[in-house]
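Entry type: protein chain
Record version: 2
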Amino acid sequence: MRGKIFNFQRYAIHDGLGIRSVLFLYGCSLKCAWCCNPESFIPDNKFIREVEIEEVIPWLLEDKPYFLNSGGGLTLSGGEPLLQPEFAGVLLKECRGHGIGTAIETCGEVPWSNFEAVKGLVDYYLYDIKHLDPDLHNTYTGSGNSGILQNLKRLSLDKAKIYLRVPLVPGYNMDEKQAHKIAELAGDISAEGINLLPYHRFGEDKYARLGINYAPAGKISIIPEADRKHKVLEFAGLIRLHYSKVVIGG
């Protein structure tokens, strides 16, 4: 079976537990203003290529000693990896057969049937929460969040292990109200933890190489690095008032 990818990264430590290999699948159901992987949704760009599952498994077997020693494994990311549910399901099943741990990073904006395609094959989900206000979610990502939250609750009811991942975007989602709502959501779904991901501009050069404008211009508040670090710590502290399992970073 073939799938479309745009990157494969080894020795990752911010995309799940332990040392991981991350396979970035092409396609995304959101258009986040701060996206650092524009190659995940720009059609026919130079980063995209097709791979066979038989091609991917040897890459992972080469890294298996690192997985076993660190509690790591494969993370499917993107883009949105569950936009290729059949490819993801077959690949994860192969990983299971080889004793390789599995995780999926998802924005949740896919049909529930796409989650069912990987049911029982995922050790845990890294579930992105951009904003809990539906209108602001739509303004900055191009989509509302009702389906995202519904899928999250269904995963919770299925007893899936879930880590919430929150990209902290200045001027967008770093206020006290959001901190309280995120903590409340984590408690409601019995999340394994919350990962706060500070905003960065690492993907800016990709936009230039793809010949498109960097979207955040005029949308995101740019503040000095020292102030940004202080605000991240402050936001983490606000969440910890209601939910203790919070870390800064992946």
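Comment: Residues 5 and 25 are 4 Å apart (CA to CA).
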